[in-house]
Structure formats: structure tokens, C-alpha cells
Amino acid sequence: MRAPNTLTFQVRLSLASAGLSAIVFLGCATTRYPPLPGPTAEDVRIENRENLNDLSIGMTREEILELMGTETVQTYRHARDHRAFVWGKGRTWMYAPVAYWQIPQPFRTEATRGSDGARIEILYYYTDLRRKDGVVTDRELTPLVLEADRLVGWGWAFVEPKVEAHGHLPGCPSCAHHPGP
Hints:
By secondary structure, the protein is α+β, with helices and mostly antiparallel strands. It has helices spanning 6-28, 41-52, 61-68, 156-166, and strands at residues 31-32, 73-78, 85-88, 92-95, 97-103, 108-113, 119-126, 141-147, 150-154. Strands 6-7-8-9 form a 4-stranded antiparallel sheet. A 3-stranded mixed sheet has the order 1-4-3, with no helix packed on it. A two-stranded antiparallel ribbon has the order 2-5. The longest helix is centred in the N-terminal third of the chain and has 23 residues, at 6-28.
């Protein structure tokens, strides 16, 4: 049987000791994300998409607003800038939560009168993210179409055939600017 090589044993012991020290150091001074004081923009999009599943044709405007929401939502995110680090408990660097932007619910509305005099209203809710560019485009919104304060349909799949057939929603002169797929 061979005698263990003392140099190899010392190297292994040094490496193990360095690895253990690194684990202890990283455990004591790590970067964490503390809980945010409110929802993120993604949370708002997810909730709005989930609420769309509970819509049904014929719902009143009041029922829709109760389901989808009417309050402006203050969203938050963790700062992505090294200057926004704060020294937390237990020797921990934390990204500071910062107020991000406010999302009105609905995000936008349009209203007009149809040729029969009935009120046509479109409520747009923020449901999708196409690009992280800080700009909310029409494609990131979902339209809910009401006629005479009753839901007649929602989504671009509902709106686009009407826009294509008439150049706009019937009775809605401002609808021609909405994008295609």
C-alpha cells in the first residue's frame, strides 16, 4: 500500500478550505430582492388576462368595470442600477424596490354613437407585453366593445373583422387607426 502524498493532501485541504470560505462569504454578503410593496406591471397584465376569462357577452358596463377594475395601479420593480443597492440586515446587499409606473384601468377608452344612435364604447385593458421599450402599443391592449352599455365582444379577433369590413368599427370614426395582426 502506498503512503499518501502529503503535498496532494495539503492541496486538497487548501482547496476545500477555500471553497468552504467562499460559501460562508457568499452566504453572509449576498444580493437579495426584498418583497415589493405592490404589484409589478406583469402582475397587472396577468390579472387582466385572467379576468378576461370571466367576461360574457351581454355583461353590463358596471359588471365589466367591477370585474376588470377601475383604479389606477401603481406598479413596482426592483432597481437595476448598482446605485440603488441598499445594505440590508445580515450583511446583505439588496436591490431597492422602486415605484415603476402607473397603469390606469381601463388603460384607454373610446366612445361614439353608431348609425342607429346607440352608444359604442371600447375599453382597452393592458394585457400583453410585446417589447420592453416603455411604450404601450395598441397590440399590448385588449379591446372590450360595448354597445348600449352591454358587452358585445372583446379582443382584436372580434374588432378586426369589423374594422376590415367598414374601415372602422361601425359608427366609430377613430377606429381606423388600430393595427393589424
